[in-house]
């Protein structure tokens, strides 16, 4: 497992951060919007957003109208490595379960 995948999984380990990702799937949002929707204090939301950025899941930009505001959005391709790892893991499980089934059925015959 790569360090980037470890960071992604670490970022997604917290339920508040997963909920923030769900909200960002709907549309980009400011930190204040996310904090309000999640019922978090701004400093707590800031910590969660730093973790999501470190995990490579979100990126931020300043809108043209106000450089003090940051708008967060999901980063394109951020979960590609995670999806590949999950698909590989699922394929291995399926193979092992099929082999186990063959073994069990062979013993009972």
TrEMBL record:
Q: Which Gene3D superfamilies has this protein been placed in?
A: Winged helix-like DNA-binding domain superfamily/Winged helix DNA-binding domain (1.10.10.10)
Domain HTH arsR-type stretches? 1-94
CDD domains in the record: HTH_ARSR (cd00090)
Any Pfam family hit: HTH_5
| InterPro entries the UniProt entry points to | ArsR-like_HTH (IPR011991), HTH_ArsR_DNA-bd_dom (IPR001845), WH-like_DNA-bd_sf (IPR036388), WH_DNA-bd_sf (IPR036390)
What highest taxon heads this organism's lineage? Bacteria
The record ties this protein, via SMART domains, to: HTH_ARSR (SM00418)
Q: Which GO terms describe its molecular function?
A: DNA-binding transcription factor activity
What is the name listed in the Swiss-Prot or TrEMBL entry for this protein? ArsR family transcriptional regulator
Q: Which organism is it from?
A: Sphingopyxis granuli
């Amino acid at each position: 497992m790569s360090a980037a995948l470890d960071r992604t999984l670490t970022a997604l380990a917290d339920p508040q951060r997963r909920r923030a990702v769900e909200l960002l799937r709907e549309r980009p949002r400011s930190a204040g919007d996310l904090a309000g929707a999640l019922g978090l204090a701004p400093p707590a939301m800031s910590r969660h957003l730093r973790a999501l950025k470190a995990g490579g899941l979100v990126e931020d930009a300043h809108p043209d109208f106000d450089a003090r505001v940051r708008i967060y959005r999901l980063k394109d391709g951020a979960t590609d490595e995670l999806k590949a790892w999950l698909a590989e893991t699922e394929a291995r499980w399926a193979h092992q379960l099929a082999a186990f089934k063959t073994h069990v059925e062979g013993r009972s015959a």
